[in-house]
Amino acid sequence: MDGLDARVPEISPGRPFRDWVTTFGALSWSGFRRFATYRQATIAGSFTNIVFGFLRCYVLLAVAAGATDAKPGGYDAEQLATYVWVGQGLLTVVALWGWTELADRIRSGDVTADLLRPVHPVIGYLAPDLGRAAHAMIFRFLPPLAVGAIFFDLYAPERWFTVPLLAVSILLAVVGSLGLRFLVNATAYWLHDARGPITLWTLSAGILAGLYFPLRFLPDWLAVTFWVATPFPGLLQTPADVLVERDPPLMQFALVALQAVWAVVLLALAAYVQRRAEKRLVAQGG
């Protein structure tokens, strides 16, 4: 095909694991390449995140300066500044908003083509989303963090395991986010138009995930309730807290372990909802 590689990974019964890894890797790479084509959108998005990073950082630093407590929420000024810039970078990595691909395909009937592929729909969306997140880590996470480091005093981790633990936490945040977004979009199987649930998700995710302010600013009983009863803090709050070492080492690992539990639960729930939806799916026009 004139220089284009049109080969498709073949799934062999004799090498299921190897071929599954190959297919998953190919789908992830396709997600990376897809978002790498939108160069101007990437630059514009990074610039927007940086502008809002300045606004949020000055607001939270003003809150810290005017607080009677020396460390409001358990954060000092450096930790708060780092929290803000990490959140601005992770906003696109975990993709809190703007993903309606599944709902759009359900509405148009194109989702029926997904069911003919040799990959489960949940995996078919998860793998490219990990590729998208890898692209966002390079071009949407690092630039805001670098700008924040130039203009503010940011917190440097003191524990050797914090950075590797942060990488695991971000990976789990992306997986959990995809599970939540899949469930919200899957309401289109029953509602046909999922704009209502998507709007509710957009309004609630930023608050419950700790984007606008750290959940540690809330009363302890309410913050713990959000952390244990909902998966939202694991999307932004937990990775940021891991990096700024807000908690003792044991608590750091416990928070990431809770992320892992929610990630598994959300993926399992997404697979269950997809299975139930397939039993009632009727494509428009036949």
Structure write-up:
This protein has 286 residues and is mostly helical. It has one domain (16-280). Helix content is 71%, strand content 0%. The chain has twelve helices and no strands. It has helices spanning 16-36, 39-66, 77-93, 101-108, 111-114, 121-151, 162-186, 188-191, 195-208, 220-229, 237-244, 249-280. Helix 1 (16-36) crosses helix 6 (121-151) and helix 2 packs antiparallel against helix 3. The longest helix has 32 residues, at 249-280.
What are the key terms here?
286 residues, mainly alpha, 0% strand, globular, disordered N terminus
- Structural class call reads mainly alpha
Using DSSP, what is the number of strands? 0
Domain tally: 1
Number of helices: 12
Radius of gyration: 20 Å
Topology order in helix (H) and strand (E) letters: HHHHHHHHHHHH
Organism: Winogradskya consettensis
Keywords: Membrane, Transmembrane, Transmembrane helix
Protein name: ABC transporter permease
InterPro entries: ABC-2_transporter-like
Write the layout of secondary structure elements.
Layout: H1 16-36, H2 39-66, H3 77-93, H4 101-108, H5 111-114, H6 121-151, H7 162-186, H8 188-191, H9 195-208, H10 220-229, H11 237-244, H12 249-280
Organism: Winogradskya consettensis
Keywords: Membrane, Transmembrane, Transmembrane helix
Pfam family, one: ABC2_membrane_6
Quick structural summary:
With 286 residues, this protein is mostly helical. The protein has helices at 16-36, 39-66, 77-93, 101-108, 111-114, 121-151, 162-186, 188-191, 195-208, 220-229, 237-244, 249-280. It contains 12 helices and no strands.
